[in-house]
C-alpha cells in the first residue's frame, strides 16, 4: 500500500492578533512563514519531522521594509528572502 503524498495535522503556533502572515513555503518537512507585526518583518521556521518549536528570525525593523517573497531550496536548509526595498 502506498503512503499518501500529503497529510494534514495541526501545528502549534501561538499567534497574536498583531501578527500578519504574508508568505508560506514548505520543503522537505521544513515550513517557513513570513510575518509582520508592529513594523517588524520576521521569518518563522518549523522542522516538522523533529516536532520542534518554532524558530523566529527577525529580518528588519524598518517600516518601509517588507518581505516580498521567500524561496526555500529542496532540502529545506536554505531560504532566500526578497524584500520590497530590494
What do you see in this structure?
With 86 residues, the protein is mainly β. It has a four-stranded antiparallel sheet with strand order 1-2-3-4, with no helix packed on it. A two-stranded antiparallel sheet has the order 5-6. The radius of gyration is 14 Å and the shape is globular. It starts with 19 loop residues before the first strand and ends with a strand.
Salient structural properties:
mainly beta, 4-stranded antiparallel beta sheet, two-stranded antiparallel sheet, 6 strands, 0% helix
Topology:
Elements: E1 20-27, E2 30-37, E3 40-47, E4 55-60, E5 67-72, E6 79-83
Antiparallel strand pairs: 1-2, 2-3, 3-4, 5-6
Structural class label: mainly beta
Mean pLDDT: 85
Strand content: over 45%
Q: Taking Cα atoms only, what radius of gyration do you get, to the nearest Å?
A: 14 Å
Number of strands: 6
Proportion of residues in helical segments: under 10%
- Uncertain runs are none
Tell me the distance between the termini: 48 Å
- Going across the biggest sheet, name each strand in turn: 1-2-3-4
Shape: globular
Largest sheet: 4 strands, antiparallel
Q: What string gives the helices and strands in order?
A: EEEEEE
Number of H- or I-type helical stretches: 0
